[in-house]
């Protein structure tokens, strides 16, 4: 009787291994997402200094030691939350300024999408400005802080890029990005603290007026 060549026999082991790996990855991602959701609630209530891994694990329904498989510190969790927030911000800004639109429309759309993201997600504003941790990037490594800042600049760059297309010189466009950011944050803080009521103004309309003036400055520079 001739012995069969093992290499000639088809095997289903590889597909099964891939399926197992895919299921394991999906489970790990679900657990990670669950931990981040629990951590967000703890940070909101206690701040970064008052939060601890034990409480985050309890909220997530895990023992404290199991979290270390996903995050080695509460600061790492905080960084992951902020990174996820900035990715959603960039997606919102991209959706508000599709490439098919004119530069004027993209400038308006990108800037307003930036404002709307934080206006409708005030906890992301707290997270983005480290308000859970005392107005400073506490516990974040310089490399991580630089990477997160770069993603924030990416969101603002769509506005600045459209202004450049309209004719605004490079230095002026960079300054305009910074000025819009400062204006936007000021309006958001006034809105979230309800201080805007003392002026009897609509913060969204004030934002639109500022954006329109920026577009006009860009077009005037081109002329």
From TrEMBL:
PROSITE patterns: HTH_TETR_2. Residues 29-89 form the HTH tetR-type domain. Residues 1-21 are annotated as: Disordered. Keywords: DNA-binding, Transcription, Transcription regulation. It holds the Pfam family TetR_N. It comes from the Bacteria. InterPro entries: HTH-type_TetR-like_transc_reg, HTH_TetR. Residues 52-71 bind DNA. This is TetR/AcrR family transcriptional regulator. It comes from Candidimonas humi.
């Amino acid at each position: 009787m001739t012995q069969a060549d093992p290499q000639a026999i088809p095997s289903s082991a590889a597909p099964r291994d891939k399926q197992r790996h895919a299921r394991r990855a999906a489970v790990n991602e679900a657990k990670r997402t669950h931990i981040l959701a629990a951590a967000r609630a703890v940070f909101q209530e206690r701040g970064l200094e008052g939060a601890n891994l034990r409480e985050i694990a309890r909220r997530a329904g895990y023992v404290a030691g199991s979290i270390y498989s996903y995050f080695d510190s509460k600061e790492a969790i905080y960084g992951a939350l902020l990174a996820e927030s900035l990715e959603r911000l960039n997606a919102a800004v991209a959706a508000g300024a599709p490439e098919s639109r004119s530069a004027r429309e993209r400038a308006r759309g990108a800037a307003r999408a930036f404002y709307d993201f934080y206006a409708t997600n005030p906890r992301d504003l707290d997270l983005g400005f480290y308000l859970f941790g005392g107005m400073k990037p506490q516990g974040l490594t310089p490399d991580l802080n630089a990477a997160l800042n770069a993603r924030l600049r990416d969101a603002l760059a769509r506005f600045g890029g459209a202004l450049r297309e309209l004719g605004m010189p490079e230095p002026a466009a960079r300054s305009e990005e910074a000025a819009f950011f400062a204006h936007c944050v000021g309006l958001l803080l006034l809105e979230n603290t309800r201080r805007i009521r003392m002026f009897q103004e609509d913060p969204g309309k004030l934002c639109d007026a500022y954006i329109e003036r920026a577009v006009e400055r860009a077009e005037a520079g081109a002329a």
